[in-house]
Amino acid sequence: MSDAYKVYLIGIPEVDEEHMALIKLTREIGHAIISNRAPLEVLSLLDSLISSAQSHFAHEEEIFAPYRLPGEKKHKAEHRMLLEQTGAVRNMVAEDRNGSWQEILLQLTDIMSKHVITYDMEILPHLDTP
Ligand SMILES: [Fe+2]
Ligand SMILES: [Fe+2]
């Protein structure tokens, strides 16, 4: 793993592995957009991102629950918001609508990566007291 990814590690191996897979997908999507790939190619990556995010968020919420994090409600709401927005952008990509989905999808993948280093990192001070 390159040092660039270490900023994303929270110290729970199964969560870290899922985060790495999600971040890799967001980068692949970014690369596909910048390389002007066809909407169908982006859509297939986006579908992988959506299913990985769905299962990761559910898994993470289960793992974090015993820590009773102060921001738990907000964290879960952020997961829901990310899934809703990703689903909405998916429709835009599928219909290749209005030619601006590339910009919106790039922003969304950026927000998804940042979620890990903001919301998910909140677990760190609580790791000794599950
Ligand atoms: Fe996460
Ligand atoms: Fe999260």
Topology overview:
Layout: H1 13-34, H2 39-64, H3 72-94, H4 101-118
Residues 60, 75, 79, 115, 119-120 line the site of one fe (ii) ion.
What does this molecule look like?
- With 130 residues, the chain is mostly helical.
- The protein has one domain: Hemerythrin-like (Four Helix Bundle (Hemerythrin (Met), subunit A), Up-down Bundle), CATH 1.20.120.50.
- Helices cover 68% and strands 0% of the residues.
- It is built from four helices and no strands.
- It has helices at residues 13-34, 39-64, 72-94, 101-118.
- The two termini are 28 Å apart.
- Bound molecules: fe (ii) ion (2 copies).
- One fe (ii) ion is lined by residues 19, 56, 60, 116, 120.
Low-confidence stretches: none
Characterize the main sheet: none
Regarding CATH, which class?
A: Mainly Alpha
Assign an overall shape: globular
Distance between the termini: 28 Å
Per CATH, the architecture is Up-down Bundle
Number of strands: 0
Report the order of strands and helices.
HHHH
